[in-house]
Amino acid sequence: MTVRDGVGDGADAGIGATEGKDLAYSPGFGNEHSSEAAPGALPVGRNSPQRAPLGLYAEQLSGTAFTEPRAHNRRTWLYRIRPSAAHPPLRRIPNGELRSAPFHEVEPDPNRLRWGPLPAPQAPTDFVQGLVTVGGNGDVLRREGIGIHWYAANASMDRRIFSSSDGEFLIVPQQGALLLRTELGLLRAEPGHVALIPRGVRFRVDLLEAGASGYVCENYGRPFQLPELGPIGANGLANARDFLAPVAAYEDREEETEVVTKFGGNLWAAVYDHSPLDVVAWHGSHVPYVYDLRRFNVLGSISYDHPDPSIFTVLTSPSDTPGLAGADFVVFAPRWLVGEDTFRPPYFHRNVMSEFMGLIEGAYDAKAEGFVPGGASLHNMMSAHGPDRATFERAGTAELIPQKVDDGLAFMFETRWPVVPTRFALEAGHRQTDYDAVWEGLARNFRP
Ligand SMILES: [Fe+2]
């Protein structure tokens, strides 16, 4: 096996050697990156020369239509040992607990749903085998909506590669660091980071610890982008420079490799005679990346009231309606609360948008108990929710001195359509069927 990863002198970068902590990256969001793992591999001045350098094949990978506006256009040119076209027929393999939209297993459920952590697998399970779908919306073949998954794995992917033609994978590790070996290079993602694998980009997940678990938003819709900032100005929220794309790294492996593709909601696979992670050089904008959520520049009120949580948007997948996201990825990061005469935790609300929340670590300031790291809640369209009784009573009488909220890292996948759960999610043993009780006992305080 040969791995060239642009780190140091180009020596083999085995999993035990670096654990990915000293990986080189190419910073920026949405820009034109370029990288070569062998000198001279990247053509100069053209994309598809008569013969590509070093005997490589040139191949374009488009994440948007050729004709989409320049600001949203995503494509990457790959220079690889074998063209992707050279592969045997794909055949259906079992989907496991992976599901896709449209979701029809159960009726859409207006109840507020909550789960504890997904139990760790007992049998050897890699990242792909460990994907379990919570629910989703839209239609995978129309490239609209999202699928929400948990993952729980205890093994690295061994001679197995995965990609989704159905959408981009926003991976939110909750436990266990991951080394993501992608066609474009290596990314290290640990709890507190998010990693994004674009539609169609092939990758393998190596576990850097004994087990790994977390969440995935599979975004069937338009690629995630940074939100507009409006009056905030030119800086703030997630800053573009903190997104890290890989540098070119390739495997020259002549060995049987199972290449799994998610297409139309199902898994298909073919056994190649080589690893398709054989891209020696590339340039473009359709790239994977990793982002440290602790870099998020949290903005909020410095006078009164709790801003709408859209102020915490890290990434957004727009729809055709301005301001209406197919999916928003929102983080509740450590921040100061200073509002005067203000109920500082999230307020009671009913929203047209639907909200799936997860907790990476610590606690969330609207729930005193029950919402635990690795767990999740789903508050669908117009379902009434907000602080639990204990939080309401505490926050309503708290002394309003400046307060640092720094004991947790929670996130939300917010989406335009209700999330229809899977049967597995509704019937799972780790579902908390007594969730409604957190709002019991909210006293009648009305004194006309
Ligand atoms: Fe909410």
UniProtKB/TrEMBL annotation:
Signal peptide: none
Region listing for Disordered, in residue ranges: 24-51
GO molecular function, one term: homogentisate 1,2-dioxygenase activity
Residues at which homogentisate binds: 385
Coiled-coil region(s): none
Enzyme class: oxidoreductase
Keywords: Dioxygenase, Iron, Metal-binding, Oxidoreductase, Phenylalanine catabolism, Tyrosine catabolism
Pfam families: HgmA_C, HgmA_N
Pathway(s) served: Amino-acid degradation; L-phenylalanine degradation; acetoacetate and fumarate from L-phenylalanine: step 4/6
Cofactor: Fe cation
Reactions that this protein is recorded to catalyse: homogentisate + O2 = 4-maleylacetoacetate + H(+)
EC number, UniProt record: 1.13.11.5
Catalytic residue list: 306
Ranges where the Homogentisate 1,2-dioxygenase N-terminal domain occurs: 25-293
Domain of life per record: Bacteria
Residue span(s) of domain Homogentisate 1,2-dioxygenase C-terminal: 294-446
Function text: Involved in the catabolism of homogentisate (2,5-dihydroxyphenylacetate or 2,5-OH-PhAc), a central intermediate in the degradation of phenylalanine and tyrosine. Catalyzes the oxidative ring cleavage of the aromatic ring of homogentisate to yield maleylacetoacetate.
NCBIfam families documented for this protein: hmgA
Subunit field text: Hexamer; dimer of trimers.
Family note: Belongs to the homogentisate dioxygenase family.
Name of protein: Homogentisate 1,2-dioxygenase
Species in which this protein is naturally found: Actinacidiphila acididurans
